[in-house]
Design goal:
Chain A: This is DUF742 domain-containing protein. Chain A: It comes from Streptomyces typhae. Chain A: It holds the Pfam family DUF742. Chain A: InterPro entries: DUF742 (IPR007995), WH-like_DNA-bd_sf (IPR036388), WH_DNA-bd_sf (IPR036390). The structure holds 2 protein chains of 2 kinds. Chain A is globular and about 45 Å long. Chain A has 5 helices and 3 strands. By secondary structure, chain A is mainly α. Chain B is of the alpha/beta class. Chain B has a single domain, classed as Rossmann fold (3-Layer(aba) Sandwich), CATH 3.40.50. Helix content of chain B is about 25%, strand content about 30%. A 7-stranded mixed beta sheet of chain B has the order 2-3-4-1-5-6-7, sandwiched between helices. Classes of the chains: A mainly alpha, B alpha/beta. Chains A and B meet through strand 2, helix 3 and helix 5 of A and strand 1, strand 2, strand 3, strand 4 and helix 5 of B. The complex binds guanosine-5'-triphosphate (GTP) and magnesium ion. Guanosine-5'-triphosphate (GTP) binds next to helix 1 of chain B.
Chain lengths: ~120, ~210
């Protein structure tokens, strides 16, 4: 690992500035988020670093795990930061196509995708 | 289907992806989890660093409060772009047992787990299977075929691991992506049968045309 290490205790200063101490239970390592537009004034440094990853996303998303790997932040901290940015409207989760219609079974979709690889 | 990395190495989840799923690749120390994730992933495998704080009572600590030490644990993961709308993340669990506290966050919300085992040390897998059972994570078992490892019939391994009759048991070569994908299909077929409503034929998925 080269370069300066990040603050070894990332979670605490963040929590101190923002009040959120827990992640949304459904913001997990594999949860994909996209940039939304909203007022980004007053964000902490860690939240700004997360938002900065989306500068060149071109509408693409990143999962919590991708963000943790890119920034070398602990994933537990990223879950909290992302939860907070969702609350603030700066990040959003993708909306399923055909919202309102019953979703096709996730496992069947995964199976179909895996079978297409062999 | 996987876009080129941006200048800073990020590979974005393409616009239009609306769902993500997760499968955990578990197993005892050194069974090939990192290798598996790396060979199956469609993006270069990535690594997160989680920190855990543990009490460590050294000899000179006996009279005092236990000292807390912070350890960094590397967590490998990869990603498969399964369709225009769906990505699958694969997370390797850390092998060493002192990192078990991290398992809850890894398995939470997972479709299931693929447990890699090594025939040279099957006993090391008991604890892993017990952990998945305690956490209610459904799993399949894949024997990672190491060169020179003793060869056993699958039913001998099934017996040695005391697997339920319906738990899938297969083999794979963690260095070979295609073989890993087949093991994941075995897991997902089992999971879909578990989820199938009672009135539907459990083997309906077999009738789907192969692409
Ligand atoms: N011959 C052979 N070697 C393998 C196979 N899978 C992994 N290895 C080797 O076994 C060693 C351990 O593999 P890893 O993928 O690091 O195992 P791991 O489960 O991630 O290990 P920990 O994270 O330390 O628990 C490496 O040197 C691999 O190259 C396999 O299928 N066949
Ligand atoms: Mg490993």
């Amino acid at each position: 690992m080269s370069g300066p290490r990040r603050d070894p205790d990332l979670v605490r200063p963040y929590v101190r500035t923002d009040g959120r101490v827990r992640a949304h239970p459904d913001v997990r390592l594999e949860t994909v988020v996209l940039a939304a537009s909203g007022p980004s004034a007053g964000l902490g440094a860690d939240a700004r670093a997360v938002m900065g990853l989306f500068d060149r996303a071109g509408g693409g998303g990143l999962a919590v795990a991708d963000i943790a790997a890119a920034l070398e932040f602990p994933p537990s901290a990223v879950r909290i930061i992302v939860s907070s940015l969702i609350d603030e409207g700066l990040l959003t989760r993708p909306v399923p196509a055909g919202a309102g219609q019953p979703e096709t079974d996730l496992l069947q979709e995964v199976l179909r995708g895996l079978r297409a690889l062999v | 289907m996987v876009s080129a990395p941006s200048s800073d190495g990020l590979i974005y989840v393409p616009p239009g992806v609306t769902r993500s799923a997760k499968i955990v690749i578990s197993g005892s120390f050194g069974v090939g989890k990192t290798t598996f994730v790396g060979s199956v992933s469609q993006i270069p495998p990535l690594r997160m660093e989680e920190r855990i704080t543990q009490a460590s009572a050294g000899v000179d600590d006996l009279a005092r409060a236990p000292r807390k030490t912070t350890t960094t644990v590397g967590l490998d993961f990869g990603r498969l772009h399964l369709s225009d709308a769906l990505v699958l993340y694969l997370f390797g669990t850390p092998g060493q047992d002192r990192f078990r506290p991290l398992w809850a966050g890894l398995t939470e919300g997972a479709l299931g787990a693929l447990v890699l085992v090594d025939t040279r040390n099957l006993e090391a897998s008991f604890e892993i299977l017990a952990l998945h059972e305690a956490q209610g994570t459904p799993y399949a078992v894949a024997v990672n075929l190491f060169d020179g490892a003793p060869y056993y019939q699958l039913d001998e391994i099934r017996q040695a691991l005391d697997l339920d009759p319906e738990t899938p048991l297969t083999t794979c070569d963690a260095r070979e992506g295609g073989s890993g994908v087949l093991a994941l299909i075995t897991l997902c077929e089992y999971l879909s049968h578990q989820h199938a409503p009672a009135h539907a034929p459990a083997h309906a998925s077999v009738l789907e045309p192969r692409p």
